[in-house]
Structures are given as C-alpha cells and as structure tokens.
Design brief:
The structure is a single chain. The protein has about 170 residues and is mainly β. The chain has one helix at about 10-15; strands at about 30-35, 45-50, 55-65, 70-75, 80-90, 95-100, 105-110, 120-130, 135-140, 150-160. The protein has a 10-stranded antiparallel β-barrel with strand order 1-2-3-4-5-6-7-8-9-10. A hairpin with a 4-residue loop joins strand 4 and strand 5 (about 80-90). The longest helix has 8 residues, at about 10-15. It is globular and about 45 Å long.
Length: about 170
C-alpha cells in the first residue's frame, strides 16, 4: 500500500481561490482609463490584475499629474469578507473590508475594521459593474458616524484594452 502524496503547494493554492466568492470582484479586472466625475477626459489610468494563483486582486493606479498608488484586495474565506489595503504616494494607508451588497456592488468600508476607532472618518467605497462594461467607483466619507456622506471620489473606469474572460 502506498501513502497518498499531497498535491504540491502550487496546485493547492491555484485551486484555493476559485470559488464564486473569490471571483466576486473579477468585474474590476482590466486595464482602464479613469475619468473623475465632472471631467470630460480620463484623469488617471488603472491596471487591475489577478495575481498569486488568483488569490489577490492588485490595482496599480496613476493619475495624469503623477500621483500613484496601489491596492491589494482579497477574499478571506474564514471571515467570509473581502479586504483591501490601499497605499499611495501621499503616504496615507486605507484598510477597508466588506463584500457584495444585494445589487451585486462591491462595498468596502473601514468602519468595522480593526483599524477603526470611534470618531474617525468613515470611508466607504462602492464599485458598480455597469451594463456597458465600465465600472463606477464611488468613494464616500462620513464624519458623523454615518449619518451623512460626502463624495471623496467618483470615477468611471472604461476599459483601454478588451480583456479575456477571467
């Protein structure tokens, strides 16, 4: 009788992130021109890719004025929620988490994270896949514990290059 040999770690990790929950943010994958609300042409570009065996969604963001940033998003199966960490050239970090709402929008916020303390600004970002293939990113903030919201950024992501289905 032979002992069963476990699959190599590389095979296990590729299979680890193939669930529907892990693929819920795939609508954001692509190479995009980003146009801020009120502008008539792109103000930034963003490259969103699936990396590390499909377990991480990575964003590389660059504005026309030279600001850059990146985010790493991933689905935590144990907690059944999405997490995102953002860092930009201004040095500020953002840690948000959440998931899909009833409308299929990805909604991540810092309110219920370990990094949030009562009285801090609440950040809530909603990504909405639109029928034309674009994605709206709406970043809102609240300084009154969620009673009212202000728009920090409202951008439309339009594909630069058609991407094959993930």
């Amino acid at each position: 009788m032979h002992a069963q040999t476990p699959a190599p770690a590389s095979v296990q990790s590729v299979k680890a992130c193939l669930s529907d929950a892990h693929r819920a943010f795939d609508f954001w994958i692509g190479v995009w021109d980003v146009t801020a609300a009120g502008q008539d042409r792109a103000t930034a570009s963003s490259r969103i890719s699936r990396d590390h065996g499909g377990c991480v969604i990575r964003e590389d963001y660059t504005t026309k004025s030279g600001y850059t940033g990146m985010s790493m998003s991933f689905y935590d199966a144990a907690q059944k929620k999405w997490h995102q960490t953002w860092m930009g050239t201004d040095g500020s970090a953002l840690f948000i988490e959440g998931g899909l709402n009833a409308e299929g929008e990805m909604v991540l916020a810092n309110r219920n994270t370990l990094y949030y303390a009562r009285g801090m600004v609440i950040n809530r970002i909603t990504w909405t896949a639109r029928d034309d293939g674009s994605v709206r990113q709406h970043w809102q903030t609240s300084t009154d514990d969620g009673a009212s919201w202000s728009t920090m950024f409202d951008g439309l992501y339009v594909r630069q290059v058609p991407q094959p289905a993930p």
